[in-house]
Amino acid sequence: MLQGTLHTPDATMRAYVEAVDAIVAAGHDPVATTRMVEQAAQNLIPSNYEVPAGLRTEYPSAVYTRNLVYSDPELRFAVVAIVWGSFRESRIHDHMNWCVVRCLAGTCFETSYSIVDDAVCNGRAEVCVSGGRLLQQGGVLGIVPPPRANLHRMANAGWPVLVTLHTYGDPGTRARVFDPVERSIEIVNLQFHNLLP
Predict the structure, then answer these.
(1) CATH number assigned to the domain comprising residue 133
(2) Which helix (H) or strand (E) is 20 found in, with range?
(3) pLDDT tens digit sequence for 171-190
(4) In this structure, is residue 4 part of a structural domain?
């Protein structure tokens, strides 16, 4: 039984969140956890699944809208529906933990980056593009914790609205943001737009 608040009465989301809760409670290493959550997203969320209306709302002043679906009270994971307008994109970032993304509508493009320096120090790092991939509706993407493969930029690859479901291996409220021109790094606090007054 879930201990946190599920911000939708939707049965599909409940089944998925309960599965993630069980996976996280089993205490596997982060890579294994990522792979199991990927499987749960693939198996429990139909490729034609439509996010409930309350979680599809766009916040007008945001580059993209982050709507909280579920936050674990023990801060072990969070599930967030993100709504992206046409050709909107995130900054280059990592989540400092594992993440699984399920594309629910539209087409997502992920650009991966590598840190060129030996180490991130003094709030500075040089990054370069290391790859890119399209995630079509129904696709699932697992992102393991740094330093292996977590530095990326997500974008809506087209005109139609993009909706992605992100499951983070933490509360989903912080990210490290990289500025490739300034070679700077900052920790940013992330908000959930559906919880704003």
Answers:
(1) 2.60.120.10
(2) helix 11-25
(3) 999 999 999 999 888 999 99
(4) no
